[in-house]
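[job 4417] fold queue: 2 targets
>>> target A
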Amino acid sequence: MAYNANKDLKLYYSIGEVAAMFDVNESLLRFWEKEFPIIKPKKNAKGTRQYRKEDLDNIRLIYHLVKEKGMTLPGARQKLKDNKEQTIKTFDVITRLQEIKEELLTIKRELDVI
């Protein structure tokens, strides 16, 4: 998954951009929008979705629960309903540990070259 919240500078993203960030179809994002009330993209007069950083963070969390952890949609929805804050904290810790792992592997590769 290519999405990284720290590198994003735009205020709004199109559904195509968001789909590309998560390597999913636009139809999946529209489906998740119906299934998870925490995804609320702004819509302009033409009905075009405009996703904010908050929407991206919520999609990232749902992506983690459904695609990476293999939870069912009802299971993910219940987890977010019951304990959203703890779920977010746990996901943030996992994300940071993955970043640290990548940093350490990069250092190891650099040291192996020496």
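>>> target B
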Amino acid sequence: MVDEAMVRTALESVVDPELDISIVDLGLVYEVRFTATDTGVHAEVDMTLTSPGCPAAAEIMAAAHRAALSTEGLDSVHINLVWTPRWDPKTHASEDALMDMGIW
């Protein structure tokens, strides 16, 4: 049975091209929800970007979709771009990401 940890593991392969850090480590992935459909299991992934004007937005969103869809047991995925809560590295990023960004 597919779960949130499996999807987050798949999403770890998606790297913010400007920071060269995983979107999961940056804390850009907020929530993963599942629903059963006639065709299988569907996931809704709520995520944000480091800034509303992110020049790599389309690239990151497409990579997140491909990565999440590669999760065994998922039949469909939708990536929802959300802006609430506003991303703050001090609140959302992992300790490793903070160190990589020089924030402590």
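[job 4417] complete. Note on B: The longest strand covers residues 29-37.
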